[in-house]
Amino acid sequence: xxxxxxxxxxxxxxxxxxxxxxxxxxxxxxxxxxxxxxxxxxxxxxxxxxxxxxxxxxxxxxxxxxxxxxxxxxxxxxxxxxxxxxxxxxxxxxxxxxxxxxxxxxxxxxxxxxxxxxxxxxxxxxxxxxxxxxxxxxxxxxxxxxxxxxxxxxxxxxxxxxxxxxxxxxxxxxxxxxxxxxxxxxxxxxxxxxxxxxxxxxxxxxxxxxxxxxxxxxxxxxxxxxxxxxxxxxxxxxxxxxxxxxxxxxxxxxxxxxxxxxxxxxxxxxxxxxxxxxxxxxxxxxxxxxxxxxxxxxxxxxxxx
Length: 305
Description:
globular; Rossmann fold
């Protein structure tokens, strides 16, 4: 286990020649991640829905490139992956960072509940569409960013879109639980296939970002965007777990990296444990099969027992 009190961006190895795709990189954790990787010589592709915001974020970030990606629309995800191939881009690391939190019930382009669509399905599809490119690169990784809220989440398989009973935070928690289940199931399947790609999870603890402050739900905005903000880490601190997962030689596939302080709310990165329900292989298989059906993206990886 890493020495949690010591790890910082200063310990990121030289990333010259490596390509990072970071979703949601125009603000918050994604922007802090992109800046840290670029500062170490990495070529960073900012995968963002709003290209104008992405270009502003890329200013002063050497080696940065902005490409449009709307994770709520699976056709946009496919175009993004196809364009990378057409341009000969071979990513070394995919950081599934983008997210939405606690909107009123909204459906994405394919009719899926927005948080599940953006936070899970879009990233599931993107990972599958880029997996063969990642497999050709040395020390390649997929880092999926979950949340402490995954502990309160579960899969509502009988009402995925909240048609019969939607609550903004309940369905946010579902999406973050899905992130954890996906990252662990991806690890199991990659290991079974003998793939060199690593699948890691990360969470930022309690970090002040516009994910909370821009949340449409008034109570969420008041609680996380105002009342509790003095207790929060900065995005630069909150991004450390995903940066460790993306770059550190000690990071291993299947690990969940989070802050090492009390309650995993803040602190330098360390290995943490997901909620036990997220480790259930049956849940992993069920979510995987459902996600392949809903996205139309089928991975060339075997199912596990």
